Automatic annotation (TrEMBL):
This is V-type proton ATPase subunit S1. It is a single-pass membrane protein. Residues 400-438 form the V-type proton ATPase subunit S1/VOA1 transmembrane domain. Belongs to the vacuolar ATPase subunit S1 family. The lineage of its organism: Eukaryota, Metazoa, Chordata, Craniata, Vertebrata. GO terms for cellular component: bounding membrane of organelle; cytoplasmic vesicle membrane; endomembrane system; proton-transporting V-type ATPase complex. Residues 1-19 form the signal peptide. GO terms for molecular function: ATPase activator activity. The chain crosses the membrane at residues 406-425. It holds the Pfam family Ac45-VOA1_TM. GO terms for biological process: regulation of cellular pH. Residues 240-385 form the V-type proton ATPase subunit S1 luminal domain.
């Protein structure tokens, strides 16, 4: 009876797990380097609420914060793959495809938990003190934007009629025109902005596998688009490069309100002073100096202090990033660094580095000044020693080979294998009696020693 109840409970949990609803989310921005192209590879994984919030963090760190939320009633990845073809005179997703190709940053998430979308607007309003503006279709051309404060524009697109393919294509094309018109208006006004395009719930449509595979490359090929190329920041000791540093997003937040995006200044326009950087065989300091960033921040210096030592336990040299310092208006914020180390011949890479405990490598505040700052660095890579051919060496990653999920699977498999082995061993120990009672003879007597 207990076994039956166990199987019934497992069946209920499996059914609930398979019934999780998810919708696609498309994000793009006029700000460069918000997301790395590798972030789009989310095949077979449903993005949770927490993961979506982490992916939206770069939007909040821009100096100019204007966000447009296009919200539809139903949407699925199959809609993009199936309706990417032209239907008569209608061209569904024509503007969306063009915008994704031309945007400085874009991100395509094929599956996001619907619960995360239902709470998205509340989360956005809690994250930044936005001025919320609901826009109707007829008001798009009359849009007025006050750039002195953060703005969020919510555009509820018309419902999708799914009576047949033609009506569905027309509805998508009409919404696509609204997206294109509003985007063009903002660009003509010279306003920096980011966009989220998603839906409240998924559309329940199933297409044949060959159609999906053939047309999938239409819109989703944007995932492999050519983005603005960034070159690693390098420091020379005369003729040779001695320090390399790169990141797809490098931003700071002071007192939860003042956002400073250093990505373009550091890696694109190179408006950073590296003269205070120091290189040697045992110590290296990467010093990034910025002037005239914002009102109240006259000068800003960020130091990455690295050492190269020989460790007898591993019988080799290792380099470590020991600490990070932020010097703002003569006040120094110091952080210890966790798990940023690699063999001296390697570079170090980590997807997320910063002050949050959710990141792969954490910056731990040492003094009170450090608690003022929030640091966010995505696709962090650094090398301070043994640089060959002016390129990053093989990267030692902060993510271990065995993730928690792999360890859980291994431990569970070992326990089940042990139970199976024990059961087989017990079965093999079973033996039959060597002597039997004869009902017509005397009773069988078995001594205690046998």
């Amino acid at each position: 009876m207990a076994l039956v109840q166990l199987f019934y409970s497992f069946a209920v949990l499996l059914r609930l797990a398979l019934s999780v609803d998810h919708v696609p989310v498309l994000l793009w921005s006029t700000h460069s380097s918000l997301w790395n192209s590798e972030d789009t590879l989310q095949e077979g994984h449903v993005i949770s609420k927490r993961e979506l919030h982490m992916l939206l963090q770069p939007v909040f760190t821009q100096d100019s914060k204007n966000l447009v939320l296009f919200l539809q009633d139903t949407l699925s990845v199959e809609d993009f793959t199936y309706y990417s073809e032209s239907f008569g005179n209608e061209r569904p997703f024509h503007n969306v495809q063009g915008i994704l190709k031309s945007s400085s940053s874009s991100l395509v998430l094929s599956a996001v938990d619907c619960q995360a979308i239902s709470d998205l607007l509340d989360y956005l309003q809690e994250s930044v003190n936005w001025k919320l503006t609901a826009i109707e279709e007829s008001e798009v051309s009359k849009l007025e934007v006050d750039t002195s404060k953060p703005n969020i524009f919510v555009v509820k697109l018309q419902p999708i009629s799914r009576l047949n393919d033609i009506s569905t294509a027309k509805a998508f094309a009409a919404n696509d025109k609204i997206i294109g018109r509003l985007t063009m208006i903002l660009q003509e006004k010279g306003i920096q902005f980011s966009v989220i395009y998603t839906a409240v719930r998924p559309s329940r449509i199933l297409r044949t596998l060959d159609v999906v595979l053939e047309s999938r490359r239409r819109l989703m090929a944007i995932e492999a688009q050519e983005t603005l190329q960034q070159h690693p920041l390098n420091v020379t000791n005369g003729t040779d490069i001695c320090i390399l540093f790169n990141a797809s997003n490098f931003s700071l937040t002071a007192n939860k309100t003042v956002h400073v995006d250093l990505t373009n200044l550091t890696f694109v326009s190179s408006k950073v002073n590296l003269s205070s950087s120091v290189c040697s065989a045992t110590n290296a300091t990467l010093s990034l100096n910025y002037d005239g960033l914002l009102d109240g921040i006259n000068s800003l210096e960020i130091r990455f202090l690295m050492t190269n030592k020989f460790y007898s336990g591993s019988a080799r040299d290792w380099f470590t990033l020991d600490s990070v310092e932020i010097v703002c208006n003569t006040k120094v914020a110091r952080y210890n660094v966790s798990i940023i180390s690699a063999p001296a011949e390697y570079s170090f890479h980590c997807q997320l580095v910063g002050t949050s405990s959710l990141y792969g490598a954490k910056l731990i505040p040492v003094n009170s000044e450090a608690k003022i700052w929030d640091v966010y660095i995505s696709e962090f890579q650094i090398q301070g020693f043994n640089i060959k051919n002016n390129k990053f060496s093989y990267a030692s990653d902060c993510t271990s080979f065995f993730s928690p999920g792999i360890w859980m699977g291994l431990v569970t498999s070992i326990v089940l294998l042990w139970i199976l082995t024990y059961g087989v061993h017990m079965i093999m120990q079973l033996t039959t009696n060597s002597r039997f009672d004869d009902p017509k003879g005397t009773a069988l007597s078995v001594p205690q020693t046998e």
